[in-house]
Design goal:
Structural class: mainly alpha
Largest sheet: none
Low-confidence stretches: none
Shape: rod-shaped
Helix content: over 70%
Number of strands: 0
Strand content: under 5%
Number of helices: 3
Length: 103
C-alpha cells in the first residue's frame, strides 16, 4: 500500500507542471497557427495589398466624377461638356447631323 500511495503522491506532484507545459504548448501553437498567428501574417499582407489597390481605384473614380461635376457647375459650365451631355442624355442633334452609335 505504501508503494501505491507513493505513486499517487508522485502523480499529483507532477500534475501541476504537466498542465503548465500543456498550456504553454497550446499558447505557442495558437501564436503560430491561430487566425492571428505568424502564418496568417502573409494572408493579411496580401489582403492589405488588395485593399490598397481597391482604394486607389475608388479614389481615381471619385476624382474623375468630381472633375465632371466641376465641369457642370452652372456658374462656369464648359460648353463642350454641356453639348456632350445634352446629346447623350436627351438624344438631341442638329438637323444636319447623323448619329452613329458605337455601342
Amino acid at each position: 500500500m505504501a508503494h501505491i500511495a507513493k505513486l499517487r503522491m508522485l502523480l499529483f506532484s507532477a500534475l501541476g507542471p504537466a498542465l503548465a507545459i500543456i498550456l504553454l504548448i497550446l499558447f505557442a501553437g495558437y501564436a503560430v497557427l491561430g487566425p492571428r498567428g505568424i502564418l496568417a501574417w502573409g494572408d493579411y499582407s496580401r489582403q492589405l495589398g488588395e485593399a490598397k489597390h481597391e482604394l486607389a481605384l475608388a479614389t481615381a473614380e471619385r476624382d474623375r466624377l468630381k472633375n465632371r461635376v466641376d465641369l457642370l457647375d452652372p456658374r462656369r459650365t464648359d460648353p463642350d461638356m454641356a453639348d456632350e451631355l445634352i446629346r447623350r442624355e436627351l438624344g438631341l442633334t442638329h438637323p444636319d447631323e447623323v448619329v452613329v452609335p458605337l455601342n
